[in-house]
């Protein structure tokens, strides 16, 4: 498949909010999955949280704002194996996009309290989507 020359090489996104937690520097630490973080949405996006409490878990897409450069082949942090960047969860990626599933603990206005967010303080949040086990299982069956 050839690249479509009509497609722009630049994609512009604006953060819908930012992460607040105690992690200042990007280091691999399993403890982060046990900690509570806040996702503070910009006020103009607060209405987008309507009925988010219907879900126990959420996908959070974010921007690795402190990540610099990438290698297509590297050693994975979690198991030490050599792999391609797309076969890892490395923050050093061509588009520096992070994705994680978090547990939603509570909502206070424009602030989500979540557990298991592996992003550092100040990280721009690009999007939030509900995680539905039923949808994931349907997708898995369709792939098998």
TrEMBL record:
InterPro entries per UniProt: TrmO-like_N (IPR023370), UPF0066_cons_site (IPR023368), YaeB-like (IPR040372), YaeB-like_sf (IPR036413), YaeB_N_sf (IPR036414)
Keyword Endoplasmic reticulum in record: no
Keywords, comma-separated and alphabetical: S-adenosyl-L-methionine
NCBIfam families per UniProt: tRNA_TsaA
Gene3D superfamilies linked: YaeB-like
Annotated ranges, domain TsaA-like: 13-140
Protein name: tRNA (N6-threonylcarbamoyladenosine(37)-N6)-methyltransferase TrmO
Family: Belongs to the tRNA methyltransferase O family.
Top-level division of the source organism's lineage: Archaea
